[in-house]
């Protein structure tokens, strides 16, 4: 946790990240690595270098003190950590990626591990650097970028059509999305599927659909379905302000209402049943006043309401619903003692809420100290992260949490 130790941080208490005391403007957490982007445009990262994201020689080396990967001290405007790779978007409009590349997810035209920041190329069989990317999003083995004309290009694995080109072939260089050539505001990535919020306030999704998570009215995984990129659902939901792509289900905020589609294990769709759905269903009781929805974690969902309260539903055996019961629920339950929440993030089986006063409350599984209360005891109700104040932004990995505090420094907990 970048404090010189490879163990859970002080048994679940937050620590300042050594050498990162000011100027942090973005956090990105992957499974093996965490990175901070600084106002200077430099990167500071730590974690496991097994895939070469931190240094040129990939080894199972735990970098416990923050380092500047590949001398990136300036010029970086945005970062995205995938499962095994890291992409940096530069102020110049260039995009460079490195790390594991078995499916071509670093976009350099090859399928071999990339051990230094390498330019993503314009297109297949073209070595011209790709320029003008506005934002970049990483899925499991797929990377997508929003172009300067608000279209989408993707590269890497094409499992179940996750590149969106209507084909089935992996591509180590960017391919244009079959339909989304303009009008895209942002892209969100999931396990093997992606969704884009359009300037029309509709949503288009593509990729894996075995559980109906694309919301197109079926569970087909044929190339035709993948290339249709039908708005979610086929009746074209509008007024979308947020989308969250989980492993096997997807949720959106549409005109202030929470709606979900896909698998419904443990009631993760929130409609009062455990029946899967291939079209969006209304989350029970959340027909208005929702500002953010979260389909992360394992088979549970959460929503932040405009009044600052939080609702969660789905799998709850580790306390991740936060209502004190430790049971699953197919309808939303109110998270206890959370008011004035401005953001919510989830790891594998825990949740943390950023409160408007700069504190953080967490609930759920805690075996690696990911709740930040100084213990490793699971909690079915929110606990306050001990001694933390001034938090302004929050990000979670599978088993850890980091925040930016008002000084621009970082504090993290978990493993």
Describe the protein.
With 415 residues, the protein is mainly β. Helices cover 1% and strands 43% of the residues. A 4-stranded antiparallel β-sheet has the order 1-33-32-31, with no helix packed on it. A 4-stranded antiparallel β-sheet has the order 2-3-4-5, with no helix packed on it. Strands 6-7-8-9 form a 4-stranded antiparallel β-sheet, with no helix packed on it. A hairpin with a 3-residue loop joins strand 16 and strand 17 (193-198).
Write the layout of secondary structure elements.
Blueprint: E1 15-16, E2 24-29, E3 33-38, E4 43-48, E5 62-67, E6 76-81, E7 85-90, E8 95-99, E9 114-119, E10 121-123, E11 126-129, E12 135-138, E13 142-146, E14 152-156, E15 171-176, E16 184-189, E17 193-198, E18 203-207, H1 223-228, E19 240-245, E20 249-254, E21 257-262, E22 277-282, E23 290-294, E24 300-305, E25 310-314, E26 329-334, E27 341-346, E28 350-355, E29 360-364, E30 379-384, E31 391-396, E32 400-405, E33 410-414
Antiparallel strand pairs: 1-33, 2-3, 3-4, 4-5, 6-7, 7-8, 8-9, 10-11, 12-13, 13-14, 14-15, 16-17, 17-18, 19-20, 20-21, 21-22, 23-24, 24-25, 25-26, 27-28, 28-29, 29-30, 31-32, 32-33
């Amino acid at each position: 946790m970048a404090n010189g130790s490879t163990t859970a941080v002080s048994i679940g208490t937050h620590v300042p990240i050594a050498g990162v005391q000011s100027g942090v403007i973005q956090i990105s957490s992957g499974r093996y690595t965490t990175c901070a982007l600084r106002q200077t445009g430099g990167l500071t990262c730590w974690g496991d270098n097994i895939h070469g994201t931190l240094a040129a020689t990939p080894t199972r080396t735990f970098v416990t003190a923050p380092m500047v990967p590949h001398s990136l001290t300036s010029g970086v405007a945005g970062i995205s950590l995938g499962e095994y790779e890291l992409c940096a978007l530069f102020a110049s409009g260039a995009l460079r990626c490195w790390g594991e590349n078995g499916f071509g997810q670093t976009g350099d035209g090859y399928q071999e591990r990339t051990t230094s920041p390498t330019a993503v190329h314009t297109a297949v069989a073209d070595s011209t650097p790709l320029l003008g990317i506005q934002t970049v999003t990483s899925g499991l083995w797929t990377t997508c970028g929003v172009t300067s004309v608000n279209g989408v290009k993707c590269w890497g694995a094409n499992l179940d059509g996750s590149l969106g080109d209507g084909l089935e072939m992996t591509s180590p260089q960017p391919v244009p999305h079959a339909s989304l050539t303009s009008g895209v505001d942002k892209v969100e990535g999931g396990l093997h599927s992606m969704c884009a919020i359009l300037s029309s306030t509709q949503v288009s999704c593509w990729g894996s659909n075995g559980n109906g998570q694309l919301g197109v009215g079926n569970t087909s995984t044929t190339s035709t379905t993948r290339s249709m990129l039908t708005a979610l659902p086929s009746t074209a939901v509008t007024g979308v302000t947020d989308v969250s792509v989980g492993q096997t289900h997807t949720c959106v905020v549409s005109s202030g209402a929470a709606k979900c589609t896909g698998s419904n294990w443990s009631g993760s769709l929130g409609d009062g049943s455990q029946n899967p759905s291939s079209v969006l269903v209304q989350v029970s009781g959340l027909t208005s006043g929702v500002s953010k929805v979260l389909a992360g974690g394992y088979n549970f969902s959460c929503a932040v309401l405009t009044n600052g309260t939080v609702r969660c539903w789905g799998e709850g055996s580790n306390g991740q619903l936060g209502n004190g019961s430790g049971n699953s629920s197919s309808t939303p339950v109110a998270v206890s003692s959370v008011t004035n929440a401005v953001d919510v993030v989830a790891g594998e089986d825990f949740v943390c809420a950023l409160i408007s006063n700069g504190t953080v409350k967490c609930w759920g599984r805690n075996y690696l100290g990911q709740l930040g209360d100084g213990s490793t005891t699971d909690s079915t109700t929110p606990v306050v992260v001990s001694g933390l104040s001034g938090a302004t932004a929050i990000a979670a990995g599978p088993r850890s949490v980091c925040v930016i505090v008002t000084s621009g420094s970082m504090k993290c907990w978990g493993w």
